[in-house]
Amino acid sequence: MNWFQYAFNIKGGTDYVHTARNITKGIGIRGTNVWLLICSALLASIGLDTNSTAVIIGAMLISPLMSPILGVGYSVGVQDREIFIRSIRNLAYATFFSLLTSVIYFMITPLGQPTSEILSRTQPTLLDIGIGFFGGVAGIVSYSRKEPTIALPGVAIATALMPPVCVAGFGLATARWDIFGGAFYLFFINSAFIALSTYLIIKLLRFPLTDYVEKGKQKRVARYALLVLILFSIPSLWFLYTVYQKNKTQQVIQTAIINDFRMRGNEILKWETENRDSVIMIKTFYSGSPVSEDDKKVYAKKFKELGLEKYRISFFQMNITKSEMDKLSSDMTENIMKNIELQNSRFRDSLQEMYRTIDEGLIFGEVKAFYPNIYALGVSNLQMKNNQKTDSVWVAYLQWDTLSDKIDKQEAAANIEQFLQKRLKADTVWLHQSEPFKKNK
What is 360-437's CATH topology? Predict the structure, then answer.
């Protein structure tokens, strides 16, 4: 035996009886395993809901989902129908109760928002297939040893079976079918490729067959199973392509937009993208001088030049430095950013509501009721800019008719200006008067 064969040989330490006993013993979802399953699902749901990676890892360590999946691969490898049926049935039970537990949790939790931990498990890629496959290899190799190994906790964390089930539960509880579909697909491909790797290792280690099966039939079953796995792997290729395109676009945005904004003397604290109907919003949190409307137009033009017509950028100014922000906890930072977004949103909503309530025709009628000699009245909100900031001011344009010579225009204009200040809820209204309009005789 050469060095290569010696280094990669795993047959020597294989305990066939011990492996069969451990796998078949762990398949059943009852008693202790039921309690572990429910606790694991609750912990994973809490961790996903609070965006806590540590809690999610703890849930993965106690999850008993791995055993029935190993049982599926093992039973196919040794051709044991009874163990195969038991494994499938208990895997279905475990999946159902995990889903049910997470659905109940997300229906009663006061949080229930799609956190980054939730969203990260909604688009499985080809890389997740690799995680499931090699995690399954490590799992069955560990199970097949005479002496216990330290690999099993790492396998439980790497394969991450419970979190996607709970994310699927979040999708069901909130009627977010895109999240449910992506998360459950991730759980399915992880399970399928763990079972596949288990089957391959069982065949490699030459475990004794339980039932005799005709070789022709055995090959047909293997071909069908391989075809099914290939078909179910195709969506992951598409997800991988979309992730690649997304990362490529983010690099372009980082280089052409974010770095340019930084070069203008601003400190970028954080930036992220968010899908909003037909556009993709780039939320940029920064410290520095306010962003002018001209700057926004420059970046809008850059998006068109880069072929990113669907992208828009919004700026959120924060009175905090990058070093100060790094000292804050991630939860505190996220809460600060959410509050800033909320304040900006409320400000925009209040402006929009104010604009909606301004009916120039109605205002004209109200003023004309007191001063019938008015020929026209227009009201608009102007943006006034200087080097430091941008202010808005209300401007009114007033035009009298020829009969207005009989009234005191200065006193009337002062009264109209006071009325418009109260009507528009503004501290100042600039009122401009024009020459009387001469009607044609």
Answer: GMP Synthetase; Chain A, domain 3 (3.30.300)
